[in-house]
Predict the structure.
Amino acid sequence: MTDPLFDLSGRVAVVTGGMGQLGAELATGLAERGMRVAILDLETAPRVGTAGLATAVDEGTIRAHACDVTDRGAVEAALALVDADWGVPHLLVNAAAIDAPPDAPAAEVGPFEEVPLDSLERVVHVNVLGVVVCCQVIGGAMARAGRGSIVNVGSVYGLLSPDQGLYDFRRAAGEEFFKPVAYSISKSALLNLTRYLATYWGRSGVRVNTLTPHGIENRQPDPFVEAFASRSPLGRLMDVSEALGGVVYLASDASSYVTGANLVVDGGWSAW
Ligand SMILES: NC(=O)c1ccc[n+]([C@@H]2O[C@H](COP(=O)([O-])OP(=O)(O)OC[C@H]3O[C@@H](n4cnc5c(N)ncnc54)[C@H](O)[C@@H]3O)[C@@H](O)[C@H]2O)c1
């Protein structure tokens, strides 16, 4: 029996970036809890294999829409399809984002003094303006419907500076690598976008919160895993499944008086 406080069955979710590692896990977990889930992503096939996602797509509880979240027309078109099929969404999870990939050009991951502005603009365009667009279009529809919950996926790197010591192993191997500033400033912007919208829509029945995960296990190199574990109060990276509980909470009636908040799921990283 589902606790009514956490019951999401029959509700509709949009998960952006739902073909990525975290988004796929969230979309699948929400579908398993009875939600109908629309994924908005550049890709329409999972980048990482989760059997649950494939099953839910086959069963029609998850539908994938090819959509660039920075393209307002594309987001409006996707929402029109979701609305026609299932009605106005109850939940929007903004998980689509980009970061410097492991093979990023040296300039992007080099010293701060040399980082090209166009790499910052690219990251901020997706990670901030993409969230703004989805909130405008989908959050706006929720506000007109008089209910909804938005979860903006942030990062500990938007709350605290990256510990560049985590990447010592890359520099020791001869690479000139620094975790870039673009990701940090883009994720910190979400904290105040969340607070802005929480107050803007407070009386429209739309709650807006940030979820701040940190360090999801994804076959990182051993020296990174060891350096991370030595700094983590829980002594380990996060399993991707460990973000779902926070999203279920923020989506459900269990959090009916929670808005403008930041739920930190970081294994205690920010506690010392
Ligand atoms: N992986 C981590 O350790 C970690 C830690 C903290 C926060 N996060 C955050 O969690 C979220 C998901 O991260 P992830 O690790 O699953 O990343 P990922 O790269 O696996 O997934 C991101 C997804 O976003 C999609 N995407 C990128 N640009 C898009 C656009 N313009 N329009 C639509 N879709 C777009 C990609 O196609 C991809 O499927 C991100 O917001 C990320 O910043 C991740």
Remarks:
- The chain has eight helices and seven strands.
